[in-house]
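name: query_chain
kind: protein
chains: 1
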Amino acid sequence: MSPELVERFTDLFAEAVLDQEMTAGARYKAATVLGQLGSADHVAVLEKCATSDPDPYVRERAEGGLALLKANAASVAAE
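structure:
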């Protein structure tokens, strides 16, 4: 998948993770994708989700996504 396409999709998931009209399941999946494919640009989105989402499972997944993004950023910086 091209980097441009990944960026388009992750931006869509970044919108979905904060959209309270989406189901908790959809927000959970969006947080999962952002953690796996997102970039440093998505840290603020996941931080907001981790602190403000009404569903505890979505908040937990956002925290996990943040940890993964930060670990990936540290790995890239070490290279």
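note: The chain has a mean pLDDT of 91.
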